[in-house]
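Table S2 (continued). Query chain:
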Amino acid sequence: MNVTLCREVDLINPFQYKERTKERGQAWDTIAENLQKLKYCVTKRSVRDRYKLLKDQVLKKNREDAKASGISTDEASNETELTQIIEELVEVEKETREQQTEQQEKEEKKEQDGAEMRRRALETFAETSKRYFI
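Corresponding output:
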């Protein structure tokens, strides 16, 4: 089930939407519905929780492997596929979060520039003269 879940998450990609939005919730709903068609008894919440648990396990295992430098671990092909899918999803999630942060920063800068323009447009001639001649 874990590999099937991760494949569905990879296919639907709920991380392309902003966190806590309707669209992201609908994406998780779609994943749950697709898994139910495959005769798994899951809900939207159980799918999210299971994915989060798998992601945390893979990230923890990767950290432990990095600490144990030089030791190669043998994984089953099923486990390797699961690890690869989850690592790709983590990257997509990180990129999406960075893009959203950049977008938010751009919007804030635009808003600040607009406020500065309005302030300058409304200042009197005397204030403008002081600003340029001091």
